[in-house]
Specification:
There is one protein chain. This protein is α/β, with parallel strands linked by helices. It has seven helices and seven strands. 41% of the residues lie in helices and 12% in strands.
Length: 246
């Protein structure tokens, strides 16, 4: 059954992530905790379909500052011209936009940016990472190194995300993302990047919390708003974060 094959692939890749990426996660968490403990701020940007996964979530860090970009181009296709389709709404191939986001965001010296991009080949995330570095903000990349190596880099530097980050968590996902081959179809189904990226980010958060606690620092964390005291608890957690910065 195709569903069973998906679960088998998902388990195998998650087990590999846990087994092989442990030192990478620990190193990235140590860097994050060191900077946050010194007064730096933590930021997050995800180019994929799970961009808001760790943002204001139950069990998530209050001090995670999400960079979110809303891009929309509305321009009806004139008669006699071919529609541009998905390309019209796509901006990750735009290097200048990545530089603009880095320059106009709140990234600053001593901060940390968790930057998630599965292939890491596009100009936008590389430009964002380089812009963050120029501002003195460390970059932790969550990316699939094998996928990045298998495709041409599109940034003007010729580099991929894993080549410009301070720390790299390699999700060790499949090249092409989808993993279940179906004889009747011309391409595989069931991508794993979302699952692996989410697992890597939550593991990174867990390791960061552990590193902060080891320093005697208790970070503010959100509680589910579906619990009876959820809203009141989170309001207090946000107040405490504003006062303490952590």
């Amino acid at each position: 059954m195709l569903a069973a094959r998906f679960f088998a692939e998902a388990r195998a890749h998650l087990e590999r992530l846990e087994r092989d990426a442990g030192p990478e996660i620990a190193s990235a968490a140590a860097l994050t905790a060191e900077r946050v403990a010194a007064g730096g701020r933590l930021h997050h940007f995800d180019t994929g379909h799970t961009a808001r996964e760790p943002v204001r979530r139950a069990g998530g860090l209050v001090g995670l500052h999400s960079i979110e970009l809303a891009w929309r181009l509305d321009h009806p296709t004139p008669p006699g011209r071919e529609p541009k389709g998905l390309e019209q709404a796509y901006y990750y191939d735009n290097e200048e936009m990545g530089r603009m986001v880095a320059g106009r965001s709140q990234l600053a010296r001593g901060d940390v940016l968790w930057l998630v991009s599965n292939s890491g080949k596009e100009p936008f995330p590389v430009a964002l990472a380089l812009g963050a570095a120029a501002a003195g903000c460390a970059v932790v990349a969550v990316t699939c190194v094998a996928f990045a190596r298998a495709v041409p880099a599109r940034h003007s530097s010729g580099k991929r995300l894993f080549e410009v980050a301070d720390r790299v968590i390699d999700t060790r996902g499949p090249v092409g993302d989808a993993v279940v081959e179906v004889a009747e179809l011309s391409t595989a189904i069931c991508p794993l990047s979302g699952l692996l990226n989410v697992a890597a980010v939550w593991a990174l958060e867990a390791a960061t919390v552990e590193a902060l606690l080891a320093r005697g620092i208790t970070p503010a964390v959100y509680r589910s708003v579906n619990l009876p005291d959820g809203f009141a608890y989170n309001a207090e957690a946000e107040r405490r974060y504003r006062e303490r910065g952590i």
